[in-house]
Write a structure and sequence with these properties.
single chain; mainly alpha; two-stranded antiparallel sheet; 16 helices; 2 strands; 78% helix; globular; MATE_fam; antiporter activity
């Protein structure tokens, strides 16, 4: 029986270098974007525990919808990467124009749902004053959601044609704008009204619209977009095209929602344990989100690398790129876990001056350190699968891991309900929910790794049947 051999003569160093060149501007951009949320929480934490709790709750809901839109729009990365790899540059402007229509529509729906979600604030045991403040925060910040949907359409386009510098520069400028406006409105400096957490909402919503305008202006000037510039003429929505992108993107959005909503739901469930626990939970979650931007940026770069390789008709290189990218993400997670564990007290003190919140935050940051490896693995492998245009299976795995495993287990450990046959001796509070998150991320990482292994191996073997390369190893 003839053995089929898969090439292994690709250079790991070259692939790592290519992924790093593609990913590091996105990393800086992602860090700057998340830095806006970090600045919001950190600055309001130095106003009062009340303002911190309100912003923490509002940010939890906003963040869930934000990452859901981001995931839904990630279909742009996959589609444009495949067209770029196949050399179909003439189709890209049309795809981008339809992606902008999709982004605006998705953003409008997300904004409406974000506002409706504030009704939950009054059903989870929050103090009425905190719930009112958090609801106003959400109403204001949700005005930026349509712009964010359009911005992510352009983000997917520019990163998939290997032009990543603008996402870095624009995000940094957005962060600086956010901090400056926060300083004016949160604390009431230079004669501006002191709005507390509401100042953060105004800064973020207006900043997103400015970032969208800056991206369009950059594209009009930069030479990298001349061949595929999308805004040469007006184009009405093409519903079959938008429907195709939605079929690819909605499962990604649900995947992002599954993870983000698990974290957000825990924020709401922890709220009944008091201001100290909800504030500490948000601090640990906020810093974890900041660190998560590194493997996420690798993941977005992997969509481009894998998608372009498949567009070129080289699934063996796509498989190699997927595993090199996963290895890079996992390697970083080892370093991030050690950093969080060693400097958890310093991290807590940077966010708040309240001793009780500092102590609880340091405890929860230990759990954040524990799930770094699993979190990096699951985002890298899921991103590689998206490069293959496979989005439903990651969605199913994430729903199972977070809603079928993490939340139920966290509820049992955190609340110790009497009706359940086995519970801890005493409710573990926020710590119980974080244990559930650690184990849920592990389940997702294992299942997604297996999925990527079998899919990439199958595609590579199919190509090997056709090409029968001379070099490589037999599988």
């Amino acid at each position: 029986m003839q053995q089929i051999r898969i090439r292994t003569d690709y250079s790991a160093r070259s692939e790592m270098s290519a992924l790093w060149r593609l990913s590091w501007p996105m990393l800086i951009g992602q860090l700057a974007t998340v830095g806006m949320g970090v600045a919001d929480v950190a600055m309001t934490g130095h106003v009062s525990a009340f303002e911190l709790a309100a912003v923490s709750i509002g940010t939890s809901v906003w963040s869930i919808m934000l990452v859901t839109v981001m995931g839904t729009m990630m279909a742009m990365n996959t589609v444009v990467a495949h067209e770029t790899g196949a050399g179909e540059f003439g189709r890209i402007p049309h795809v981008v124009r339809q992606g902008m229509w999709k982004g605006f529509g998705v953003g409008m729906v997300a904004g409406a749902l974000t506002n409706l979600s504030t009704l939950l604030f009054y059903q989870v045991g929050l103090e009425t004053a905190v719930a009112d403040r958090a609801a106003i925060f959400v109403h204001i910040i949700s005005l930026g959601m349509p712009a964010f949907g359009c911005y992510r359409a352009l983000y997917g386009y520019t990163t998939s044609i290997n032009a990543t510098k603008p996402v870095m520069v624009i995000a940094i400028l957005g962060l600086l704008y956010n901090i400056a406006v926060n300083w004016l409105l949160v604390f009431g400096n230079w004669g501006f009204p002191q709005l507390g957490g509401l100042g953060c909402a105004i800064a973020t919503a207006s900043g997103i619209w400015l970032m969208l305008a800056a991206m369009i202006a950059w594209m009009r000037i930069a030479p990298a977009y001349r061949q595929t510039f999308p805004f040469t003429h007006w184009e009405w929505p093409n519903w079959p095209e938008i429907g195709s992108m939605l079929r690819l993107g909605v499962p990604i959005g649900i995947t992002y929602f599954a993870e983000a909503s698990a974290f957000g739901a825990i924020s709401l469930l922890v709220a009944r344990f008091g201001v100290v626990q909800v504030s500490a939970h948000q601090i640990a979650l906020n810093f974890s989100a900041l660190v998560f931007m590194v493997p996420l940026s690798f993941g977005i770069g992997m969509i481009t690398r894998v998608g372009q390789a498949l567009g070129e008709g080289d699934p063996q290189r796509a498989r190699f790129a997927a595993w090199v990218g996963t290895a890079m993400a996992v390697s970083f997670s080892v370093l991030s876990a050690a950093f969080i564990a060693l400097f958890r007290w310093e991290i807590a003190r940077a966010y708040t001056s309240d001793p009780a919140v500092q102590e609880m935050s340091a405890q929860l940051l230990l759990f954040a350190a524990l799930f770094q490896l699993s979190d990096a693995t699951q985002v890298a492998t899921a991103s590689a699968l998206r490069g293959y245009r496979v989005t439903r299976q990651p969605m199913q795995i994430q729903l199972l891991a977070f809603w079928g495993f993490s939340l139920p287990l966290g509820y049992i450990l955190g609340r110790a309900p009497e009706w359940f046959p086995w519970t801890p001796a005493a409710p573990m509070g926020a710590s119980g929910y974080w244990i559930g998150l650690v184990l849920g991320l592990t389940v997702a990482a294992v299942l997604l790794t297996l999925s990527l292994h079998y899919l990439s191996r199958e595609r590579a073997l199919e190509a090997a049947h056709v090409r029968k390369p001379a070099g490589g190893i037999a599988l």
